[in-house]
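DUF4265 domain-containing protein
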Amino acid sequence: MVAIAWNGNAVGMRTSQDRRSEPDVVRVVFELPREDEDWPPATSERVWAFPVAENRVEVANIPFFVRGIALGDVVRTEVDDEGVLWAREAVEGSNNCTIRVAVFRDGALAGDRRAVLDMFAPLGVEGEGIAQAALVALNVPPTVDLPAVRDLLQRGESQGWWDYEEGCTTPAWRALE
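Tokens:
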């Protein structure tokens, strides 16, 4: 199993690189089931996390590819024989949503991840992006105007700026449909 960390060419309001200097931060690896032969572009994803109890960590950055996990969620972990910390299951949700935005390189934003982040910042949504996939991962906290965030996502999609995926949502988010 190959574990990769997307840490090159990242842009964001609060990046995972910022977490490396915090005390007690660890890396936890999530296995990524393949949706097709090209996606996701890895078999696993490493995220930063804070230990909160024995075999429990709180996710400390926005996942790019992991489904069903958001910033602040608590997951049960297990250490393998090589000392790698693996995520096994979510045990407590944060009420945050993870939304992934694939910015079209040939669209009006020309793949500009910073432009996407700047559009969502006034709504209280933070995120980070990676150049390898022209992808922005957004953290949508429960305290923001969820309808406004959804409207912007749908407007960007209809304008041909991006496509988006709901990586982890809450009942409040799903109630908007």
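DSSP finds four helices and ten strands in the chain.
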